[in-house]
User: What shape does this take?
Amino acid sequence: MVVCIAAGVATVLATSLWVLVAARFAEGLSGSAGMVLGRAVIADLVTGVAAARAMSLMMIVGGVAPVVGPTLGGVLVGPIGWRGVLDVVLALTVLMLVLVLSYVPETLPAERREAERLAGVGGPSTTSELLSPTFVLPTLAFAAAFAVMMAYISASPFLYQERMGLSEAAYGAAFGVIALGLVLTSALSARLVLRVAAARLAGVGITVVLAACLLLLVLVLAGVPAGWYAAPILLAVAPLGLVMGNGTALALAAVPRARGAASAVLGAAQFGLGGLMSVLAGLGDGTLPQALVMTACAVVAAASFALARRVARVGAGR
Assistant: This one.
């Protein structure tokens, strides 16, 4: 966070485009530590149902931020300008550092780190865990599901404003409805996981996402009016609230000896695949590529999740 703050100051004071780009890169690179370590902290403190519930609550922020962020930035850039938006980002980073120093204890103290080192954590066995199907498959399912949302976000301006003809205010409202749906399903997941297995909740979410993406693709190929796309898009994104937190908990539970490294791999896969799919979804006229990319990601998520559950059942039967 200290490095992120320094980079944020550089973005605010940047006098050239290249300085701004370099500072923003450093800001994103250092700020990503918060996402990785936040998940690792939860995994240090709780496991099983409690971990799935905590991850779902965290996803209310982490999952909704990519949806709300662009809208909020668009609202702020008018009255305060792009430098003002960077000031807001810097202020949020300072607030994060203050809150971490004030309220977040060390969840892996020195004695536990030494015990894990002596037990071989971080060695070859840890690497093999990170390469095992029990971790790779749920991680791929999680990343592909997140990529569905990123594909939606990247092409949404064209879809809502060019194809549907919405004004900027209406576009923001439509974006807000999707964000609200994601918040509600994430909160619902946090409650349901006390009674329903995390894997079952994630499976239901992925199934609904896949069905909605397939419906969206059919509607696009059929050439129906763009207004018909709104419902399947909502059903393709909102149920991710059932997937993201539970998927994270399932992936990290598969590698108890490498929670921090696993969280880093999870985050890299999440945003690496999401970024790539965002580019692909924006190609062409923005509607058919978006539907194709969202559907392809949903298929990958569903197939990976199904294989992960089969591997888990085989492992439990041994």
Q: What stands out?
A: The chain has a mean pLDDT of 85. The first helix runs from residue 2 to 13. The chain has 13 helices and no strands. Residues 42 and 51 are 7 Å apart (CA to CA).
